[in-house]
Specification:
By secondary structure, the protein is an alpha/beta fold. The protein is built from 6 helices and 6 strands. The chain is globular, with a radius of gyration of 18 Å.
Length: 216
């Protein structure tokens, strides 16, 4: 089993990376592999709703979106990490995830995320963390992804990796995310081995608006 992590920070080995690594160490102890996918420092284009997604994902191939989708198809779980910018995740992470999930829903890779557990992780100097977590968690909710929680909100605090390493409760929270994620993955694998089938998803209706003429 493998967990694919996404580092939404332009600082490749900063605070967010430190938090993700703490989770990864526990996953390794539980016999689960992990990989940290770096968004990096290059610009990430926003989704323009062109509806030209291909079977391989997004029609634009000038960043890591489609590469991430290919890896996601083989992954068993996910952790999305981001620094906090003005009480929201990084703009590059949001643009990246918008295109990942939108194109995934229209391609042959539709099952890349469905029924696979996910966790959101944020790092901040002080505030804005819960609003940022809420934004990331919405991707899990719309993609039928169970969410792995912890013993506190999934956050670490500090301006540098050294600061984060002093945040003992934050690191404890990360380790418990790793343990909970590992437990979920093992439970899902056990259920599959014992013939427990996935839920049947209804996709018939996509109501764009509802008009009530009862008042006329």
């Amino acid at each position: 089993m493998k967990v694919l992590m996404l580092n939404g920070s332009s600082n490749l080995k900063g605070c967010t990376y430190t938090a993700l690594t703490e989770i990864g160490n526990i996953l390794n102890e539980e016999g689960i592999d992990y990989e940290i996918f770096q968004i990096g420092v290059k610009p990430v284009r926003d989704c323009i709703a062109c509806n030209k997604c291909s079977p391989k994902g997004c029609i634009f191939n000038d960043d890591g979106v489609n590469q991430f989708l290919q890896k996601a198809n083989e992954a068993d779980g996910f952790v999305f990490g981001s620094p906090v910018y003005f009480a929201h995740p990084s703009g590059s992470l949001l643009s990246f995830l918008d295109r990942v999930f939108y194109s995934n829903g229209k391609s042959e890779l539709y099952k890349s995320f469905r029924y696979k557990p996910g966790a959101a992780v944020v790092s901040a100097r002080r505030g804005g963390t819960t609003a940022s977590l809420d934004a990331i968690n919405k991707y899990f909710g719309i993609a039928q992804m169970p969410t792995a929680g912890s013993t506190y909100w999934n956050m670490v605090h500090g301006q540098t990796p050294e600061d984060v390493r002093k945040d003992e409760e934050g690191l404890q929270t990360m380790r418990n995310i790793g343990r909970n994620m590992a437990w979920m993955l093992k439970c899902f694998a056990c259920g599959k081995q014992n013939g427990i089938t996935l839920p049947q998803t209804e996709t018939t209706y996509a109501t764009n608006f509802i008009r009530d003429y009862s008042f006329m």
